[in-house]
From TrEMBL:
It comes from Saccharopolyspora shandongensis. Belongs to the ketopantoate reductase family. NCBIfam families: apbA_panE, PRK06522.2-2. GO terms for cellular component: cytoplasm. PANTHER family: 2-DEHYDROPANTOATE 2-REDUCTASE, PROBABLE 2-DEHYDROPANTOATE 2-REDUCTASE. Its EC number is 1.1.1.169. GO terms for molecular function: 2-dehydropantoate 2-reductase activity. GO terms for biological process: pantothenate biosynthetic process. Residues 10-148 form the Ketopantoate reductase N-terminal domain. Keywords: NADP, Oxidoreductase, Pantothenate biosynthesis. This is 2-dehydropantoate 2-reductase. Residues 172-295 form the Ketopantoate reductase C-terminal domain. The keyword Oxidoreductase applies.
Length: 303
């Protein structure tokens, strides 16, 4: 790295767990942060292993209130990207890059229809984070990010890297994105369907199911050009069981508990669509997708 980056103006679209974590990292790196949100809140509170504190950010609920920014971080779920169109178009002057921080493998596709002038940087984030209410995010450990290699990617790594967020570029983002998909394809729908946290993966039958789901996924990922092996899938499951607390949840579980739409069409659905294009059988993933599509919205206390 070339040293500290001069203070930048950063707009974070979305106030979920990822939005809160990135707002915290950007502030810690010395930047001015504005959060673009639908549900207003007075202050952003981050609860972390090191303690709980407030992050001084500006909160804006209407695109018309925005000024000029140096970076735009899109942290909404893939299915909500279209609802961010007003923010993105207001912020689109062609100068500020748009960093798309999402699950799945459709980073550019999710905003392609908006006709933006800005350069797009696909990004992946690994972090256990949950928004427990508007303006209050729990981060249960440090975060790591991978972004597409290139000049913008290098600048972004310098922009946000802190003690609690480690960012790096990758020259093979396709493989990185499909590797991240492996971390989502089994735990996310299974926790959402069972309404259990990661402890459910320790059930022998669920573990066998998860292995089958990821074995199908590796075959599809390889057909899509990702350099993955079945050993990668085995490592994903062993990490979930050996490294992650069983009380952690997943984004789909949190969304279901909050009565929000889940990302199943852009995670499991994307896998099934790719499998169909390559003529590959994915019966386990197709079954999970069918069940996720059948879920009705709900609202209940967090578990």
């Amino acid at each position: 790295m070339s040293g500290p980056v001069a203070a930048q103006r950063i707009a974070v679209i979305g106030s979920g767990g990822i939005g809160g974590v990135l707002a915290e990292a950007a502030h810690s790196a010395g930047h001015q942060v504005t959060m673009c949100v639908r549900t207003p809140f007075d202050r952003l509170t981050l609860e972390t292993p090191g303690g709980t504190g407030e992050i001084p950010v500006s909160v804006v609920t209407e695109p018309g209130a925005l000024g000029e920014y140096d970076w735009v971080l899109l942290t909404t779920k893939v299915q909500d990207a279209a609802s961010a169109a007003g923010w993105l178009r207001k912020l689109d002057g062609g100068r500020a890059p748009v960093v798309v921080v999402q699950n799945g493998v459709e980073h550019r596709e999710s905003i392609a229809g908006l006709g933006l002038q800005a350069q797009v940087l696909p990004a992946l984030i690994y972090v256990a984070a949950e928004r427990v209410r508007p303006g209050h995010v729990v981060r249960r450990g440090p975060a790591t990010m991978q972004v597409e290699a290139g000049e913008i990617g290098e600048r972004f790594v310098e922009l946000v890297s802190t003690n609690d967020l480690s960012a790096r570029t990758t020259s093979d983002f396709r493989t990185a994105a499909w590797r991240k998909m492996l971390t989502n394809l089994a735990p996310n729908p299974i926790t959402a369907l069972t309404l259990r946290r990661l402890d459910v993966l320790r059930e022998p039958d669920i573990l066998d199911l998860s292995k089958g789901v990821l074995a199908e996924a590796v075959d599809v990922a390889r057909a899509e050009g990702a350099r993955l092996t079945h050993a990668d899938a085995e490592k994903v499951l062993s990490d979930y069981i050996e490294k992650f607390p069983p009380t952690n949840g997943t984004s789909m579980l949190y969304d279901r508990l909050a009565g929000l739409p889940t990302e199943h069409e852009h995670i499991t659905g994307a896998l099934v669509r790719a499998a169909d294009e390559h003529g590959l059988p994915v019966p386990l993933n197709r079954t999970l997708l069918t069940l996720m599509r059948a879920l009705r919205p709900m609202r209940m206390p967090s578990i």
